[in-house]
Design goal:
Number of strands: 10
Radius of gyration: 23 Å
Distance between the termini: 15 Å
Number of helices: 5
Structural class: alpha+beta
Shape: elongated
Length: 208
């Protein structure tokens, strides 16, 4: 797995105008290809009378899935420049849909490429990006006597506390960078007089 990746900070829309044509770029994070496709379908439902609803998406921290569509524009003038902009900006797990309402002036191939790619670039600038860091999921098992103090210390030191569950024993779910596991295990033993247990799980991504 890649140590980190960048994605769009939030779902949003940014509109530009080129020679009286409206270019409305909708951007969203997408965890899976299906999620990206559902977002595209949703935008198309919102703009059924648009001249075109072109899309591009990049899924995977390693950009393993890349798809694009010109949706009736001349081949390579819409989806491809949108996809190139996402890849060039190094964003992942993201979907972009550019809705065009034709304004009566033909832009030519070069104009279309600049307009569609530019719409995505401007939307990324407007909405911003966030970096997601790879984490090791881990669970701390601790007794009730020490749980409250331990949770406070975890949060005070900036640990990514994912959930806390109180039952016969207390389990605290956290995220740890792989490089921090050994040092954290030593800190945990020191903080709880060796009474807490650290169980390592799988991997996930969270805010860096």
């Amino acid at each position: 797995m890649h140590e980190q990746y960048r994605t769009v900070a939030r779902r949003g829309v940014h509109e530009t105008e080129v020679n009286r044509s409206r270019f409305i770029c909708a951007l969203a994070p997408a965890a899976t290809e299906r999620e990206a496709q559902e977002f595209v379908a949703g935008v198309r439902r919102e703009h059924p009378t648009a001249s075109h609803n072109c899309f591009a998406y990049v899924i995977g921290a390693d950009a393993s899935v890349q798809k694009a569509s010109d949706d009736g524009e001349p081949g390579g003038t819409a989806g491809a420049p949108m996809l190139q902009m996402l890849v060039r900006r190094d964003v992942r797990y993201v979907v972009a849909v550019v809705t065009r309402y034709y304004g009566g002036v033909k832009l030519g191939a070069g104009g279309l490429i600049r307009a569609y790619g530019g719409a995505v670039g401007e939307a990324l600038d407007a909405l911003g990006t966030v970096t997601r860091q790879r984490y090791r999921l881990a669970t701390i098992i601790v007794d009730h006597h020490r749980a409250g103090k331990l949770e406070n210390e975890l949060r005070a030191t900036g640990r990514a506390v994912r959930d806390v569950r109180y039952a016969e024993i207390v389990t605290i779910g956290i995220g740890l960078p792989d490089s921090d596991v050994d040092a954290f295990r030593a800190w945990l033993a020191d903080s709880t007089a060796g009474t807490a247990v650290l169980a390592l799980g799988g991997e996930a991504y969270g805010d860096a």
